[in-house]
Design brief:
Two copies of one chain form a homodimer. Chain A is 45% helix and 13% strand. Chain A is an alpha/beta fold. The first copy, chain A, has three domains: 65 residues, Orthogonal Bundle (434 Repressor (Amino-terminal Domain)), CATH 1.10.260.40; 121 residues, Response regulator (Rossmann fold, 3-Layer(aba) Sandwich), CATH 3.40.50.2300; 128 residues, Rossmann fold (3-Layer(aba) Sandwich). In chain A, the strands form two sheets. In chain A, strands 7-6-8-9-10-11 form a six-stranded mixed beta sheet, with helices on both faces. A five-stranded parallel beta sheet of chain A has the order 2-1-3-4-5, sandwiched between helices. The interface between A and B is large, with 71 and 71 residues. Strand 2 of chain A pairs antiparallel with strand 2 of chain B, so a sheet runs across the interface.
Chain lengths: 350, 350
């Protein structure tokens, strides 16, 4: 903090003046103010008294300088506190962010909050206390208050989601959010599937809407309608329940499309336990292309939305805004289907 | 920070007065307020009572305020930047931490570093800049420099690992680290397995040593020796490679024990792809008891080391040190085997 303060305007009292008045080094002033180091209580008192006397305050320049120097990026997640355990999507996102942040000495400040009001209050506090250089916003909503709020607070931010030139903060993500789902349905159609059920995420999320619309359009284009559409909260429990329910339908679907890979893997396990073979009796498609999908047998057919690369691009966008020398973020195109082993030809009617 | 310094007025009661009233040193008052040091609960109470009595508030002091107000706990992970994607253990740990931190408005500052030197330098910087209230230390090493370093920096910390009364910082974890492995081997022995291979973590980690020693002792106790012991870096790639290698041994093992669940799930997938049935032809045991193990088919037999609860206990220990009113951390006992579907009777010799 020393050096930052030395660059301050000449008319203001300086840390050097405080150090001189207290008879200590500028480092000791820093320590007294920050409550660090090993200076004695008496010295600390003396420094703080001298600072008060001279009208010197470390925060005079702190806001701007601190802004540039916290080397901390916030990731506020508006989900239940067990989200990281239940949805590896966030682990992959953090992995992508850390791949850019860690080599440059930046940390990621993770906060889990219950709702949008808490999330907004948190940004206000973190900015007021000068704790972060920027923020990554997730789970975009159709009517999202955060971009305007953060612009008002002067905090650099990126919103994860499809690029949108009109957004008050940069949006980082793949374009054509519906493209992966369209491709997945085309793949199932080619394999002969006509009875496809769709498990979606929470209805209020933007990507839930975009993907569901793409799915319904694609089916309509083929003259079909979904066997069933179910919304979910992304959890393992929901995956098991919805799979059991869908497999018990009189007009049992021959293919299930899930909103993330962990739900798809749960769905495969649930189907296998009920005696069905995947993909012989049931095809399953995930979404995200997480490592998880390559570990299991059969390997998961899924939509790659490049979560790690989106995280990396978000980090680079923010790092560039912090004055770091980073390569420009690169994201190529759109979500794409990755065909593996969990999808196969429609079973012949029994 | 402005306000904290400007708010000081000469008439205010001083920390010295509080120390005198409580019959302790000013350092002890600091410790009581900051939740640092090793003063007794009784002393802490006495100091806080004296402070209340005199109308003294630590907000006069930058130290206390800052300490009490970053509402940020550091988690520095000394692993490759893709660790969160490749080892759900950390996701579960973070889930456990967040379950306690989030409801109290605390954030988790996540830093990934390459080595111990970087990790130590980072603590020094974070403390110097007053960015954190405490730290959770992971991946304990036999000769770990961090407890002494953090005590020197005056930063509250907990070290994850088996409790140890002699440790300079509290250690939070289950006792009897080898107990789960002993139980796992006993289970395999009962099922008739005699050819067991053991995949371990990196040799330099304390828990790797403790568990491997427990495994070798258990086998020796049964008059057996391991078919093979292999160290690994915890990755998916390593799981696939080591499984292929072990299954190609002339004296093929009938059971594999892995150091975490994601490696075990990769191992099961690799075995299944090579045409082996789990558990009919091969039994597999994981370690951690992550959600993942309940999603797959067959469900994973694994050692529950209560990662989330350890995370919660670590968070509570630190929160109590920050003056938060939290229930005392509770951890019951030792790692325990959870028997599911991936282990079964030894196949009859062909």
């Amino acid at each position: 903090m020393n050096k930052r303060l030395e660059g301050r305007a000449p008319a203001r009292p300086t840390i050097k003046a405080v150090a001189a008045a207290a008879g200590v080094s500028t480092a000791a002033v820093s320590q007294a103010v920050n409550g660090t180091g090993r200076i004695s209580e008496a010295t600390r008192r003396r420094v703080l008294d001298a600072a008060t006397e001279l009208g010197w305050s470390p925060s005079a320049s702190a806001t701007a300088l601190r802004r540039a120097r916290t080397r901390t990026i916030a990731l506020v997640v508006r989900r239940p506190t067990d989200v990281l355990g239940s949805d590896p999507h966030f682990s992959e996102l953090i992995t992508g962010l850390e791949g850019e942040l860690a080599p440059r000495g930046y940390g990621l400040l993770l906060h889990l909050v219950a709702d949008m009001a808490q999330e907004n209050a948190l940004y206000e506090r973190l900015v007021a206390e000068g704790r972060i250089d920027g923020a990554v916003l997730t789970d975009a909503r159709a009517d999202d208050p955060r971009p305007d709020l953060l612009r008002g607070l002067g905090l650099p931010a990126v919103l994860l989601g499809a690029p949108d030139a009109g957004s008050p903060v940069p949006r980082v993500g793949l374009g054509q959010q519906g493209a992966g789902i369209r491709e997945a349905f085309g793949h199932l159609l080619e394999l002969g599937h006509r009875r496809v059920a769709y498990v979606a995420g929470p209805a209020e999320l933007l990507h839930t809407r975009l993907r569901l619309a793409a799915f319904e359009e694609a089916l309509a284009g083929a003259g079909l309608s979904p066997v069933a559409v179910r919304h979910s909260d992304f959890t393992e429990r929901a995956a098991v329940d919805v799979t059991e329910e869908l497999l018990a339908l009189p007009d049992r679907p021959t293919a299930l499309v899930f909103p993330n890979d962990s739900m798809a893997v749960c769905g495969i396990g649930t189907a296998q336990r009920s005696g069905l073979r995947v993909p012989d009796d049931l095809s399953v498609v995930g979404y995200d292309n997480l490592s998880l999908g390559r570990w299991v047998h059969p390997r998961l057919t899924t939509v790659d939305q490049q979560v790690q690369r989106v995280g990396a691009a978000a980090a680079r966008t923010l790092l560039a805004g912090c004055g770091e020398d980073v390569p420009p973020p690169v994201l190529d195109g759109r979500p794409r289907l990755v065909v593996r082993e969990s999808t196969g030809p429609v079973p012949s009617p029994t």
